[in-house]
């Protein structure tokens, strides 16, 4: 494996990271929605309240993670509209302490990747301090200084690879590192990882064929029940007579990131999976008149279309109305073109390179990319999915962690 994994430490990735801003299990879902909007991967850690205001962040107080999909599904099940957003986070979050690990900034990157490969999604890392005994002669810029490796001839010093000394008054500054942060770091080290980044994902075994899916005709809430833990996504497909599946879209934490949760919840509770991911036709060809009317509210995900002298037409749903946020669309673009663009799933070909998939995930801030068959005559034939775990496995596939030796 590339030496970059052994020569860099977790502290190298903490430059510029803000201090931890805790979301407590006593906060409301409205608070969680605001926190999720500014966090990576569409999810945020949940903590127990501090015993005293001066208590530092601690892995012992970590409960689990709450995602955009968790909130939308809870509001949909509650059936009381926006009032459900006043519920406390503790009613929604599923306890899972294994999703976060508190680690030393001197931990090697290869060791950190090994933890993420086994399910850890966040690292709690002390921001202030210095360490010794690392394998690299010069660490990356950290805390505004270039830190030289402090070599020692003492056997005890050589074996102590994670000693940390912090200055008084700054010892309680912590930050959270996500898998997105690690992926961004790896993108900057593609040359050091050669030739793996330019290898096709199919050759690297980076395609996970065991993905979750639902038929487009199934209820959207059925998809929520099938959501796996990683990646937190279910493909919405149409299955052909020969058994191949064509992907239409997905229901995922990534797609619901920064959404209008009340409107998304109504859509989850009332629409099919196919209607949820692509919406009803803007021109009225797919009216959803058979569905019960949602409560009238400013955030209602339906539109009532009427004209002078005519009674209101059937109410219709569109993906735009549930608050999916994209870049500002130009005035000349039609509503239907916006609608199609937002429903399109993020896909790559089975012949795509690992570097291309990494760049695709990072540019879209996505947690996964669906993989389609490059040899099929029809576009969109689903063969698998690539997520963070598959990328980290592929990037480190040639080696496993080795014993540390003194520099």
Automatic annotation (TrEMBL):
InterPro entries: AMPK_gamma/SDS23_families, CBS_dom, CBS_dom_sf
Disordered, as annotated region: 288-318
Lineage: superkingdom: Eukaryota
Transmembrane segments: none
Pfam families, sorted: CBS
Keywords: CBS domain, Repeat
The keyword Repeat is annotated on this UniProt entry: yes
PROSITE patterns the UniProt entry points to: CBS (PS51371)
Domain CBS per the UniProt entry, residue ranges: 338-402
Repeat as UniProt keyword: yes
Biased composition (Low complexity): 299-308
Stated name of the protein: CBS domain-containing protein
């Amino acid at each position: 494996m590339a030496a970059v994994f052994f020569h860099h430490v977790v502290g190298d990735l903490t430059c510029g990271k803000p201090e931890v801003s805790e979301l407590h299990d006593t906060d409301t879902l409205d608070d969680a929605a605001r926190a999720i909007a500014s966090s990576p991967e569409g999810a945020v850690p949940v903590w127990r309240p501090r015993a005293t205001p001066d208590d530092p962040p601690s892995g012992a107080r970590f409960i689990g993670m709450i995602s955009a999909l968790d909130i939308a599904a809870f509001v949909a099940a509650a059936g009381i509209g926006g009032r459900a957003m006043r519920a406390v986070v503790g009613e929604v979050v599923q306890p899972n302490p294994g999703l976060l690990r508190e680690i030393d900034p001197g931990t090697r990157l290869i060791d950190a990747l090994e933890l993420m490969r086994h399910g850890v999604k966040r690292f709690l890392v002390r921001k202030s301090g210095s360490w010794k005994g690392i394998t690299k002669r010069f660490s990356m810029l950290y805390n505004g200084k270039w830190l030289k490796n402090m070599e020692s001839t003492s056997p005890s010093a050589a074996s102590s690879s994670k000693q940390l000394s912090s200055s008084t008054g700054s010892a309680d500054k912590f930050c959270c590192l996500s898998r997105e942060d690690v992926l961004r770091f790896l993108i900057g080290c593609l040359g050091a990882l050669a030739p793996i980044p330019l290898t096709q994902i199919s050759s690297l075994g980076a395609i996970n064929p065991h993905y979750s899916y639902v038929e487009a005709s199934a209820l959207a809430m059925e998809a929520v029940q099938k959501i796996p833990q990683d990646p937190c996504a279910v493909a919405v497909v149409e299955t052909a007579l020969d058994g191949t599946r064509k992907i239409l879209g997905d229901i995922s934490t990534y797609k619901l990131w920064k959404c209008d949760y009340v409107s998304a919840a109504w859509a989850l509770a009332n629409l099919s999976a196919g209607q949820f991911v692509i919406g009803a036709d803007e021109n009225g060809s797919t009216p959803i008149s058979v569905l019960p009317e949602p409560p009238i509210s400013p955030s209602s995900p339906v539109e009532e279309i009427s004209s002078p002298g005519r009674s209101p037409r059937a109410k219709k749903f569109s993906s735009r109305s549930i608050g999916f946020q994209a870049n500002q669309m130009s005035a000349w673009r039609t509503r239907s073109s916006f609608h199609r663009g937002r429903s399109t799933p993020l896909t790559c070909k089975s012949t795509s390179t690992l570097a291309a998939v990494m760049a695709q995930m990072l540019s879209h801030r996505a947690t996964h990319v669906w993989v389609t068959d490059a040899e099929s005559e029809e576009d969109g034939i689903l063969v698998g999915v690539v997520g963070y775990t598959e990328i980290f496995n592929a990037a480190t596939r040639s080696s496993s962690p080795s014993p540390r030796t003194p520099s």
